[in-house]
Model the fold of this input.
Amino acid sequence: MTEYLLPIVQETLEKEGMAYEVFPCDPSFADTTAFCEKYGFSEDQSANTIILASRKVEPTKYAVFVVLATTKLDVNKMGRQLMGVRKVSFADSEATVSLTNMMVGGVTAIGIHNLQIYIDSAVMKQEKVIMGGGNRSAKVLLDPKELLKLENVEIIEGLAQAK
Done:
């Protein structure tokens, strides 16, 4: 089933010795809400990966944020503070694809090696989380503690707020 994952995601999972399950999915149901409804996952099991970009800073700084689907990333306070910049916004699709080599709708922190990764502490409290597989045809199910094996990871209390 690993053939469903984007190669960089598969390579990272193997290299870091992460325990996981591959969950193939219909690409038309890859977006969080549709995926959870179709496959019976709750949104508090879904760990979304978000890329933020600095604004009005050259060169542009980027960082990765992992939060539960039931929460909202505190972009203007925590995002700016952690990135050390005055203004941030969500990275556009072109930058996201360029930085990660992943498809929008399937981006995951697993396989991103060149950016700082911030994970909301609420993610770590889940027994298992479902994340993108780098594309829209697979997800990765794992114990969030496995994410600590990734490079450049920092767990942040209060990174996201309940919606």
